[in-house]
Amino acid sequence: MKINVLILLFAIFISISACTVSEENKNTPPNYVVIFCDDMGYGDLGVYGHPTIRTPNLDKMADEGQKWTNFYVSSSVCTPSRAGIMTGRLPIRNGMCSDNHRVIFPESKGGLPESEITFAKILQQNGYATGIIGKWHLGHEPQFLPTSHGFDYFYGLKYSNDMDRDPNIDYWESCRYPEQEYFQISLYQNNEIIQEQAVQTELTKNYTREAVAYIEKNKEKPFALYLAHAMPHVPLFRSEEFEGASKRGRYGDVIEELDWSVGQVLKAIKDNGLADNTIVVFTSDNGPWLTFDTHGGTAGLLTGGKGSTYEGGMRVPAIFWGPGIVKPGVVMEMGSTLDLFPTFCAQSGIPLPQDRIYDGNDLTPLLRGGNEPVRNEIFYYRGTKIYAVRKGKYKAHFLTKSGYGGDPLVDHETPLLYDLEVDPSEKFNIADKYPEVIQEINALVEAHKKTLKPVTNQLDLY
Ligand code: MG
User: Fold this and answer.
1) 46 C-alpha vs ligand 1 centroid, how far in Å?
2) Which residues surround ligand 1, an ion (CB under 5 A)?
3) What is the domain range of residue 64?
4) What is the CA(19)–ligand 1 centre distance, in A?
5) For residue 389, what is the domain's CATH number?
6) pLDDT per residue over 432-462, tens digit each?
7) At which of 342, 376, 410 does a domain end?
8) Is residue 337 domain-shared with residue 403, that is, in the same domain?
9) DSSP code per residue over 103-157
10) Which residue among 376, 395, 412 closes a domain?
11) Which pLDDT tens digit goes with each residue over 398-414?
12) CA of 75 relative to ligand 1 center, distance in Å
C-alpha cells in the first residue's frame, strides 16, 4: 500500500515537473524583430551624428540598448546583402551575386535557391511564427517567394520601389522628382496583390501598422518579424504628416518617419509585455546612394556609399535592443548581418545545420556585455570578386572602383592598406609600412577561396 502511494506521488510529481518544464520551454525562446532599412547610411541618424535629422526613438533605442560602430553587411547592394542576412552565408555561396547584374530585376528568373535555409525557415521549423513585412528582393518566381522560404506571413513588395516604373519617364528624373504615378510596383499580402499600384506615400505607415498587428497577434508564441522598409531607397515617399517635418528636406522627412515607426514597434513590444524576451535589431542593407544627391543619405565620416567596397558602402548603423537580454553600451567590435542567423539559433537553442558553411558567428557574448571579439574579418565582395578584406583593424583593398559611374576598375599591384581604427575614412595608405599584414590578409583570402564551390549564378538567369 505504502509503495503504491509513493509510486502514485512520484508519478504525479513527474507529470507536474514535465508540464512545468514544457511550459517554461514554450516561453523561453526569445522573439526577434529585425528592422532593415534600404540604403540608409552610417551617418543618417541623430545617434550616429547627423546634425539636422531628428531620430529621438532610435537615439533612445541605442541608449537603452547597444550602438554598434563596426557593423557590416555582406554586400553593398540590395539582393546579395539580403541573401546574407537571411542565410548567414556570403552570397558567393548560393549564387546570389553576379558581375553582370548587381541585383534581381523584374525580368529575372533566378532567386534564393530552395536548398538555402533562411533564419525564418529554421525558426519556423522550431515553432516560431515568422512574418515578413516589407521588401523581399530574393526572387519573385513562386519557388523563391517569402512564403516558400519559411515565412508564414508576407505583406509588402517583391522587389525595390523604383522598379516597375513608367518606361516613358527618364529613370534618374523620375527618382529625383518622384510622383506616385511614375511607379507601378504592386503591394502583396501573402501571394495576392492588394494594391495594383502601391501607394508609396503610405508604405511606411502601412508597414508599421502591420508590424504592430503582427506583434499583438503572435504575442503568445515565439515569433520572428522581419520588417524590411522600402525607405529610404529612391523614390523617396513619406506620409502627409511628415512632409516638410525635417530640416534635412525630403530625405530627412523619410528618416524621421522611419524613426516614428521604430517608436511604434518598440511601444507595441512593451505594451504586450514582451520587452524582456525580445531582441530588436535595427540596421540597413547597404550604404547611402550618393548618386542621388540630396535624395541619398550620408555615410558620415566614412568614404564612399552604396555599390562600393569602401567603408561607406558596407558599414552601416546597427542598434540592438532587448532590455532582458542586451546589455546597454557602445560596441566597437566587428559584427555583421551574417551573424544574425547563428545568433538567433544560439539564443533559441537550435543547433546550426552541419551540412553547409556559415560565415557568421554568434554575437551573444557581446550582446551580454562581453568585450571579446566574435569575428576578426570582413570580406568585401563586389559581385563575385573580393575587392577588399578587413582583418582586425587593418583593411586591404585589392581592387577599387566607385559605387556607380564609369570610372575604371583599379587593380592594385600592392594593395592599399588602411588602419580603420586610426583612419576610419580610409585616407592614409600605410601599405609600405606593413607588408607582413598584407601577407597575412593574402593568406586569409587563399584559405577563404578554398572553401568556395561553384554554384549556379541566380542573378544571371533570365
Ligand atoms: Mg539597398
Assistant:
1) 20
2) 38-39, 78, 285-286
3) 28-376
4) 46
5) 3.30.1120.10
6) 999 999 999 999 999 999 999 999 999 999 9
7) 376
8) no
9) S--TT----S-TT---HHHHHHHTT-EEEEEEE--S--SGGGSGGGTT-SEEEEE
10) 376
11) 999 999 988 999 999 99
12) 9
